[in-house]
Amino acid sequence: MPIDTTKEDVITLAIESSCDETSVSVLKNGRTVLSNIIASQIEQHQKFGGVVPEVASRKHIENINMVIEEALEEAKVSFDDITHVAATYGPGLVGALLVGLSAAKAIAFAKGIPLNGVNHIEGHIYANFIEHKELEPPFICLVVSGGHTHLVYMEDYGSYEVLGKTRDDAAGEAFDKVARALGLGYPGGPQIDRLAKMGNKEAILFPKAYLEEGSYDFSFSGLKSAVLNYLNSQKMKGNSISVEDVAASFQQAVIEILVEKTIACAVEKETKQIVLAGGVAANSGLRELLQNKAEEKRIDLKYPSLQLCTDNAAMIGCVGYYNYIRGYRSSLSLNGVPNLKIGEVHS
């Protein structure tokens, strides 16, 4: 669909509530962030060792209006200045999604402006457009987060080919489960990354699942089980456990698979651009290894700043903007879709 080349500024109000962050952002023309407010629930969920859906939904209800007001105030705009509203409608926790989506619908209806439903995974990819103003498709994107691990070829705005995805645990999910087994608490990814810097990544040889030849899919369930088995066997033998070595060896096994398949994918697609996205994109070991391997192949690697790696509304607003100028609109009957796939569109 052709892009509208209107010269008027498009002001997007975006809402993200797919998991445990209530976030609202205001953007101008898709890539200029005027505000990006994030109310995190990490403290509420830490005592449970992970996100409790019912608790998350209740906190979103408590936070949503306050965060909207703060985002408008920081951006120095009012509801009258907003061109359209963008909101995450999947994938995610259905109760959490409905809080943000309902708020977006209410604003769209009250102000008589368009609503644009946004896919959360697409949002992570588009975070790179905010960070790197010069970035344009096509490119290969590795999306790695707590719930998703995807290798995606983005041919154009809104045009995706999913080349690989996880068959069981996502990379971030594996990080959280191993961190819990090591007694590191939630969220586990940053803790593993921190300890890995102090450990020996070659201390323990954990298995890496490459799957069948030519596959770009991922599987981390076996690796997670291998770590748990190692910890149990060491405890039964009365041996001391170096948490740092376990963290470093586990992390290395994960990132080697991610990097090897990403580079192979880029070579096959003959693209000279790779972008990294999602919460695990903040992992320093992954960034370093992927950067080194990309340079060997003379491939340009881009990734977002740390704030744009985690769930945030700015990335949702960027997708919403490009959907809007391509003429896509969502109806006010749009529902939350917890298992929404990338490239799938509901109106």
Automatic annotation (TrEMBL):
It is found in: Cytoplasm. Its cofactor is Fe(2+). Keywords: Acyltransferase, Cytoplasm, Hydrolase, Iron, Metal-binding, Transferase, tRNA processing. It comes from the Bacteria. Its EC number is 2.3.1.234. GO terms for cellular component: cytoplasm. CDD domains: ASKHA_NBD_TsaD_bac (cd24133). Fe cation binds at residues 120, 124, 311. Required for the formation of a threonylcarbamoyl group on adenosine at position 37 (t(6)A37) in tRNAs that read codons beginning with adenine. Is involved in the transfer of the threonylcarbamoyl moiety of threonylcarbamoyl-AMP (TC-AMP) to the N6 group of A37, together with TsaE and TsaB. TsaD likely plays a direct catalytic role in this reaction. The keyword tRNA processing applies. This is tRNA N6-adenosine threonylcarbamoyltransferase. It catalyses: L-threonylcarbamoyladenylate + adenosine(37) in tRNA = N(6)-L-threonylcarbamoyladenosine(37) in tRNA + AMP + H(+). It is an enzyme of class 2 (transferase). Belongs to the KAE1 / TsaD family. GO terms for molecular function: hydrolase activity; iron ion binding; tRNA N(6)-L-threonylcarbamoyladenine synthase activity. Gene3D superfamilies: 3.30.420.40. The gene is gcp1. Substrate binds at residues 143-147, 176, 189, 193, 283. Binds 1 Fe(2+) ion per subunit. One of its GO terms (biological process) is tRNA threonylcarbamoyladenosine modification.
